[in-house]
Amino acid sequence: MAIISEDDCRTIMKKALSYSKANECEISFSGSDSGNIRYARNSVSTSGFISQTNMVISSAYGKKLGIVTTNEYDDASIEKAVRLSETLAQFAPENPEFVSFLGPQTYSPPSKTFDADTAAITPAMRTDKVSESLQIAKDNKLIAAGYLQNSASFSSMMNSHGLFAYFTGTDASFSITLRTEDGQGSGYSTKDYNAVSKLDTLNFTKTAAQKATRSAGAKAIEPGKYTVILEPAAGIVLLEQLYGGLDARTADEGRSFLSKTGGKTKLGDKLVDERINIYSDPSNPELPTGSWAGDGRPQEKISWIEKGVLKNLTYSRYWAQKQGVKGIPSPDSIIMDGTDATLEDLIKGTEKGILVTRLWYIRPVDPQTLLYTGLTRDGTFYIENGQIKFPIKNMRFNESPVIMLNNLDALGKPERTVSGESFSSALIPPMRIKEFTFTSLSDAV
Amino acid sequence: MNRKNFLYLTGMGFGATMLNRIPVFGSPLIQGTAMRNVDIAMKKQMADVALNAARSKGATYTDVRIGRYLNQYVVTRENKVENIVDTESYGMGIRVIANGCWGFAATDKLDTDSIAKAAQMAVAIAKENARIQTEPVQLIPQKGYGEVSWKTPIVKNGFDVPVKDKTDLLLAVNDAALKGGANYVNSIIFLVNEQKYFASTDGSYIDQDIHRIWPVFSVTKIDEKTGQFETRQSLSAPRGMGYEYLIPKESDKIKGLTTLYRDSYDMLEDARAAAPQVAEKIKAKSVEAGKYDLVLDPSHLWLTIHESVGHPSELDRVLGYEANFAGTSFLTLDKWKSGKFNFGSPQVNIVADKLQPGSLGAVGYDDEGVETKKWDIIKDGILVNYQAIRDQAHILGLKESQGCCYADNWSDVQFQRMPNISLQPGPTPLAPDEMIKNVEKGIYIIGDSSFSIDQQRYNFQFSGQLYYEIKNGKIVGMLNDVAYQSNTQEFWNSCTAVCDKNDYRLGGSFFDGKGQPEQVSAVSHGSSTAHFKGVNVINTKRKI
């Protein structure tokens, strides 16, 4: 079992610090147990289990830093690793951007990131869940390919300035693609939670099955600008490019979509539609995350975009110090406000448009405008007069999330989703967007 | 590390943020111990513990991979050394077949008890999964090789080169770019060393020492008046070589609009060229969308080959094993069986090659103990083969695996990964200059950039680093905002000529992503400059 208790972490890291002779020393100690099962062609393909722990020791003399790792925790091994990190620091080149380790921090009480049942999942339980999912595929004469994964992890840090932080978390994630036997239809569903009890693999498989069956026999429509409804699993892969690009340094340096001439940035400017509110909140019960960042800074509730206005940028500790601001670290995940409207409500309110289940192979085209390209996949449907009329062939888009959020038409009710590109979780609504730019047709199903 | 991180790396134009996103496969390494290979007798002993433990629990086949994966990243920007990261990941992965089903477990605790427990866990997982298995694993026979070894034939081990030499080089590169007028420059040297030991119940004990290197930079220029910024990335290639790749030889240079490199790279010279080019790029004409002939340099074409030929000819994708993530393939088995599927024009000959010296995919044996080889994928434009591993070979009627099995770490299960996939040079003498002379309206593209392709590998879009407009056989100036979109079969059928072997060079991917959980692999793609008729080009300029 790789989960080590807070007390035991404290003891082992105190021991490591007691050996330190450097100006400052910081210890990170983490580990995880994780298991997975993968299936395709209606049968299991590969699966696995891995257990590992790791201690990282950072010693600093002035702006010279030495880092060493070990996974042996007897006194002699730890002392040897500490000594070695000190030797390395003394020989290292000075890093002008090195910032002294943080002192004691106050963190919010931990949110419910750890679920004991999820940590206790056995191979048999994974197999049982997959078995249920496979049955849906067989009942609907569909071909299933899916992936179920669970993990339990801990991380902790302590330094010679008195900082201590500890975190435990669990994760259970599932994704499923069902295809018709003739390969003409494909449907997808994915979810990710801290607690496996919420991971209704049966229901998610049913959603994918419905999409697979309905998507067969797709018609081609002419590429161009269309109103689209992006389901959360589709929207997240574009949204994350926006909030992943909030780095202050890049913006200050003039090489970001958030840069303006003369060394200025768009901080405080209205960036997108005024109905857009994006924030992070480690204590949100639907999306609990850690209360501290990897460098020891607290993770707090932060507004990133409020009523369409850019409210905050993320800072490394070095850049915050240089600019003389309180630097905020990058969030672990984001939340976007919505409305009470269901996905069905959004469809009903659409005169002509396209329902998108999933976007795929998202790649940057122009960082100046945050232009991205990618394609629809696994369930793309044409909507007319508030109803899904017929499946359509997949299309390539070239669009910027900034332009997309300026062309906002309507928002639905936020739900937890996971990016199929970065595997990050988020709590976002389905979005109806006007004039979304499709540039070519794809034959892929 | 995954495909996404590859994106971050290739998206170096984003500047400093990329430095937070550099992949770390393992933990920081105790420097100076990199070459302390684990004793081979001890590895055999540990492997036998796993083989015996799995057998005693009912495994009918077992293989063991003891891996020590070393990485070094030297990271600089402008006049600063930002980071020197050494990582090591050491442990054992045990794969078994029990009740006809695969099982896998991995551990970084390499005492006898922990190894035996991991082996037991692998067997337990296999037996659980066998309950829901419909197709028992059919493993094509593989002879045991006994105790053998293989090493990447490097001249100079990059891990032996003092870090100072690397930082000195990178800071000189940065200085050259800044003196040339760049506002910012980031540069990195990546080094990888896989010390892999494979043992199986077939009787193989294979020790391999594999090296890779990738020097890369990104130069950024900002127009102060307009705020417009552009980047130009290095024209290097990741290689299965030692530090000798960074010792430039004049004979490896191809002089032209910009110098291009064969088997050694002059990083300093490339940085000197990049600074004025990025300034020119800002002022370059925005392309008019439409049909153009494309002349694609190998520094660009490798990625198009990778995405549109390499991935669709992976047999696991064809069969549906990647349907939930990376996707399936339009190159279905019926097309191969027909023996006449017209993948490309007769000029298109594409080979799979795990033997090619200096390539990223070259190893002696794959990660399931199969000696590597070379074979045709596309012959005279026709699809003739795929890429397969031991549990797939029977589907193609093969008597042995093609040796394409790989895992990126001891902690992940091995599966089918792409061998080097390369376009063969044209048989008749032809240089890029002569090729350009025959183009009426076209674009000459150098370097790779944005890339995206659908899940069955039909529709793709690619961009480059440098675009030159061709009018009536002559280069008339630089273009910007270019991306081309096409359909794989249509594109390769529009290939009218490939330059000769003197122009042949390798490009490649250091971080190709696939699988769940996602794994990376490194793979090279060679070609000579090639000409494609009438490809759809879009203008990517937008306003926010």
TrEMBL record, chain A:
Family statement drawn from the similarity comment of this UniProt entry: Belongs to the peptidase U62 family.
GO molecular function terms noted in the UniProt entry: metallopeptidase activity
InterPro entries, alphabetized: Metalloprtase-TldD/E_C, Metalloprtase-TldD/E_cen_dom, Metalloprtase-TldD/E_N, TldD/PmbA_N, TldD/PmbA_sf
GO terms, biological process: proteolysis
Residue ranges occupied by any Metalloprotease TldD/E N-terminal domain in the UniProt entry: 25-87
Pfam family, one: PmbA_TldD_3rd
Keywords: Hydrolase, Protease
Domain called Metalloprotease TldD/E central: residue spans: 150-215
Domain Metalloprotease TldD/E C-terminal: from-to ranges: 223-439
Keyword Protease in record: yes
This protein's name: Putative Zn-dependent protease
TrEMBL record, chain B:
InterPro entries referenced in this protein's UniProt entry, alphabetically: Metalloprtase-TldD/E_C (IPR045569), Metalloprtase-TldD/E_N (IPR002510), Peptidase_U62_metallo (IPR051463), TldD/PmbA_N (IPR035068), TldD/PmbA_sf (IPR036059)
GO biological process annotation, one example: proteolysis
Span of domain Metalloprotease TldD/E N-terminal: 63-126
Family annotation (SUPFAM superfamilies): Putative modulator of DNA gyrase, PmbA/TldD
Pfam families: PmbA_TldD_1st (PF01523), PmbA_TldD_3rd (PF19289)
GO CC terms in record: cytosol
Keyword Aminoacyl-tRNA synthetase included in the entry's annotation: no
Ranges of residues in domain Metalloprotease TldD/E C-terminal: 290-522
Claim: Acyltransferase is one of the keywords in the record: no
GO molecular function per UniProt: metallopeptidase activity
Record-given protein name: TldD protein
